[in-house]
Design a protein that fits this description.
Blueprint lengths: L14 E6 L7 E6 L5 E7 L7 E2 L18 E4 L7 E4 L3 E4 L7 E2 L16 E7 L2 E6 L2 E5 L7 E2 L9 E6 L6 E6 L4 E5 L2
Antiparallel strand pairs: 1-2, 2-3, 3-4, 5-6, 6-7, 7-8, 9-10, 10-11, 11-12, 13-14, 14-15
Amino acid sequence: NFNIITIGLPSSSGRLLLDVTPANSNYIYILSALSSGSFQGIYRSMNGGDNWAKTSGTTDIFDGSGQAWYDLALAVSDTNENEIYTGCLNVWKSSTSGSSFTKLNNWSSPNDAAYTHADIHYLGFHGGKLYCGSDGGVYVSDNGGIAFTDMTSGAQIRQFYKGSVSKQTANNIGSGLQDNGGHAFSNG
């Protein structure tokens, strides 16, 4: 049976994500975005969803992007019910159930240890590791987001928008990728 729960939750939202944790089955988190795609809040229930309270402060964990309609992710640690991770452009971590956040990475710094590509669609814990799925591939961290390993590095699996062959010679080919640059082929 389902009951409509409204107390403590936003009266309207553009998008909601929900996650739970095996660390405490009574804890449920909701990440909410406004219909504009901007950050609305983190909401937590500590009693299996009966009561909710907003736990987030004013930190814009969407980095001002306004694109939560496209990319948005939420994960609760599998060992600590107060530790949550969010993603939109970057990965953010809270050890305080969302009342404060630390930005773990920057999508425009690909050489940093904590780098994940922007446009994060998935965050989740599996076997004690945090996985991130984004427009740039799959990343995994075994140390709470201090460092991520690109699991798809070198794999030729990007989304191509367009490709073209030179009118002068078939030996020259160019293509454009979804937020991942482009490729060129010239004489092998």
